[in-house]
Amino acid sequence: MAKFRKGNKGGQQKINTSSLPDIVFMLLFFFMVSTSMKEVTLLVKIKSPEATELTKLEKKSLVSYIYIGEPLSSKKYGKEPRIQLNDAFATVDDIESYIMAERESMKEADRPKMTVSIKADADTQMGTITDVKQALRKAQALKISYSARKANK
Amino acid sequence: MAKKETPEVNAGSTADIAFLLLIFFLVSTTMSTDTGLSRMLPPIVPQTDDAPPVKERNVFTVLLNYKNQLLVEGEWCEVSDLREKAKEFIENPLDKPNLPEKSDVEVEFFGTYPVSKGVISLQNDRGSQYQAYLQVQNELQAAYNELRNDLAKRKFNKEFKECSDAEQDAIKKIYPQRISEAEPKNIKK
To answer: Number of folded domains in chain B?
Structure first.
């Protein structure tokens, strides 16, 4: 039977790598399912304020975001803090309709659990944020969260 | 030849393609969960002239001006001292007459427990900084969290976070979080 034993004689044994693509695909699917794409491109500069007593926002589908901060292209839009909803600048008056639209897109049962996350720059003046809060009260979106990051002490 | 062999496709590069996709997803996605301070806004109520009178002793007033300075119960105060003051107000351990009243409430696990009627009222100027405002909110939250944690340790011998839902609800009933964010005022210099 010596005639079958030809080729890599004495050389190293080759490792079978045919299952490598499967493993990598599995990883790929895991990451595809478990992560979410960045939904919006920020038009405002946001340096999150710091806090220690934080709670996590569960269930991303229940959260709507309001961004407040100085515009990134301050030459074009000035330095006044602006409100961003979805992908565009907005005014306080737009918040009510935005909340309505967000609420419409949710399932009936989830609507009472809707949370609005206010992501504002640490240096914003409270005036803008108070206006936003009043608009949210008008829109009956009472569950809010002041977005902040963990202070590292 | 009886059997025609189909030519095999070279699958050696699928691993590379998959790796490429994997790296793309790793880079483009964010795993981070959003964190923040949760609050409930008060619903809008029609303005009435005869609002129910609130006793002065039951209200803990915190004012924040445009220079980010604090005035707590009429006294100048640092942010770092706010937590202790708030804790003393909420708990009123010595039943002082200038600190909030208590009313007996039936609570699971605890029986009848004197629950404070105190409300923390936070007012800010339109010019104050968001970071300062959030710091005040954070300290008030910390006061509640510490009180709840202490009680959980005394009663159940574990942290508040580790308590069951029913136990947490009972503790929340004893220390209800009452932070009122009053309508803004433009405080003049």
So the answer is: 1
Does some domain include residue B24? no
pLDDT tens for each residue of B52-105: 677 778 888 888 888 888 888 888 888 888 888 888 888 887 777 778 888 888
CA distance B81 to B143: 11
pLDDT band at B48 (very low <50, low <70, confident <90, very high): low
Question: Considering the domain boundaries, does residue B46 fall inside one?
Answer: no
A20, A53, A129: residue with CB nearest B145 = A53
Residue with the bigger pLDDT between B143 and B50: it is: B143
What is the pLDDT averaged over residues B131-136?
87
B167 lies within 8 A of chain A by CB: no
CA dihedral B115, B118, B119, B120 (to 10 degrees): -120
Residue B112 belongs to a domain: yes
Q: How far is A146 from chain B (nearest CA, A)?
A: 5
Query: What is the average per-residue pLDDT within A51-61?
Result: 81
Average pLDDT of chain B is 80
Q: Which residue of B has its CA nearest to A65?
A: B34
Q: Is it the case that residue A39 has pLDDT exceeding 70?
A: no
**In this structure, is residue B13 part of a structural domain?**
no
Alpha-carbon gap: A113 to the closest alpha carbon of chain B (Å): 12
**Cross-chain residue pair B30–A35, CB shorter than 8 Å:** yes
Residue boundaries of the structural domains of chain A: 44-150
Task: Determine the distance in angstroms separating the CA of B139 from the nearest CA of chain A, rounded to an integer.
Answer: 8
What is the ipTM score, two decimals? 0.70
| Structural domain boundaries enclosing B130 | 57-181
CB contact under 8 A, B131 and A18: no
Q: Which fold has domain A44-150?
A: Nucleotidyltransferase; domain 5 (3.30.420)
